[in-house]
Write a structure and sequence with these properties.
Layout: H1 2-21, E1 33-45, E2 51-55, E3 60-63, H2 73-80, E4 84-93, E5 99-110, E6 113-117
Antiparallel strand pairs: 1-2, 1-4, 2-3, 4-5, 5-6
Length: about 120
């Protein structure tokens, strides 16, 4: 019985840790996003129909299920590859009361053209 209780306790603790650091991204708000300007080096298809942008500083960011939303990767490549764009990255709440910046793109703008936005 002690073994079952210990195993169950470990399972509950593991679930707690998972959800503590993986809360879903809710409706994005411009005021709750991190903004950056970055040069886009390359654009490719990622897992789950994501569109992945490799940035000059070595990091990568993505549009969640961008291909499912009708975005065309070839059009994005021709318009944005090698250009410096403004990117809003979603912040994710944690159970500890602070917000962590994610690589999830909430808005992508080059010049005056909005290529993608989750903002209302």
């Amino acid at each position: 019985m002690k073994g079952v209780l210990f195993g169950f306790s470990l399972l509950v603790f593991a679930a707690f840790l998972f959800f503590a650091f993986h809360l879903p991204i809710q409706n994005t708000d411009p005021l709750e996003c991190a903004q950056l300007e970055a040069r886009i080096v390359s654009i490719s298809e990622g897992p789950s129909d994501d569109i992945v942008f490799q940035l000059e500083q070595g990091s990568s960011v993505y549009i969640n299920r961008g291909l499912e939303q009708g975005l065309n990767i070839h059009e994005l490549k021709s318009a944005l590859a090698g250009k410096t764009a403004r990117i809003w990255l979603a912040k994710q709440p944690t159970i500890f009361g602070h917000w962590d910046t994610t690589p999830h793109i909430a808005q992508l703008v080059y010049g005056k053209e909005v290529f993608y936005s989750e903002f209302d």
